[in-house]
Amino acid sequence: MSLLEAKRLEKHYGGHVVLEGLDFTVDAGEFVTLVGASGCGKTTFLKMLLGTERISSGEFILDGRPIPDEPGPDRGVVFQKYSVFPHLTVLGNVMIAEELEQSRLLGKCFGAARRRAADKARERIAQVGLDQALAKYPHELSGGMQQRLAIAQALMMRPRILLLDEPFGALDPGIRQDMHELITRLWQEQQLTIFMITHDLKEAFALGTRLWVFDKLRHDPQAPEAFGATITYDLPIGRHAPPEDLPAHLAARGIETLTQETLI
C-alpha cells in the first residue's frame, strides 16, 4: 500500500480555487521535488499535508486513513525562514518538541524526563553537525547553521515525512551544497519520505527521485481565480544532475514552457 494517496484533491478559499484535480500516489522513501511559478499552490499543498490547511474536496490519504486536520509528530517541516526560537539555545530549540509533547501545558519537563529529552536532542544535533554549538543562541549562528538547527528541530520526533519549503533558497551556493549533502544523508539514514519545494531546477533534479510541476491547465481571463493549479507533470528523475541543455531536455518531454525563469 502507498504511503500517501490523493484522489481529486482540491483546495479553495471561497471562490478562489488554488488547487484542483490532484491525483497521485507516493511510496515510502521517495524524495519528491515540487516546482512551479510563485503563487501556484505549492506551499498550500505542503500545508495540507502538514495538517494546517484543510482540504476542500476529494480524498487525501496517509497510511490508509484521511490526513489529520492538525500537525503530528509523523510530519516534520522546515521553512526558508529560520523557524527557531531566538531566546533558546541550540539544545533548547531542539528539546522543545519533546518537552511540548511531554507537557503541553507547561512546555517543559523535569527530572529523568528532561534528561531523556536532552539526550535525544543531543543525538539529533550531532546528526546535523551542530554538536559543538549546544549552548549557542540562534543569533550567534550563521545562516547555514540556523537551517541545520531547523532541520534538527524537524527531526526531533522522528517523523516519517519531512516537508521542506524552499529550505536553502536564502543560502550562499557553497553552503547550499553542504546542505544538499546533509539532507541526502539524513534522507537515506532515517528512511524519510521528503517533499521539497524549490525554485531551482538544478536543485530539484539533483536531490529528488521524482519531480512534480504545478501549473494551471485552465485559464479564464475574466475570472482568474476560477481555476486552480494541478500537477501537470510527474517525472521520475532518479537523483542526477539535469542535462546541460535543460530546456531542450524538458521540451523533449513535452514541457516546453518550464524554464528557470518561469519558476521565479
TrEMBL record:
Organism superkingdom: Bacteria
SMART domains, sorted: AAA
GO molecular function: ATP binding
Keyword entries, A-Z: ATP-binding, Nucleotide-binding, Transport
One matching Pfam family: ABC_tran
PROSITE patterns: ABC_TRANSPORTER_1, ABC_TRANSPORTER_2
ABC transporter domain: residues covered: 4-241
Stored InterPro entries: AAA+_ATPase, ABC_SmlMolc_Importer, ABC_transporter-like_ATP-bd, ABC_transporter-like_CS, P-loop_NTPase
PANTHER family associated with the record: BICARBONATE TRANSPORT ATP-BINDING PROTEIN CMPC, SPERMIDINE/PUTRESCINE IMPORT ATP-BINDING PROTEIN POTA
Name of the molecule in the record: ATP-binding cassette domain-containing protein
Lineage summary: Bacteria, Pseudomonadati, Pseudomonadota, Gammaproteobacteria, Oceanospirillales
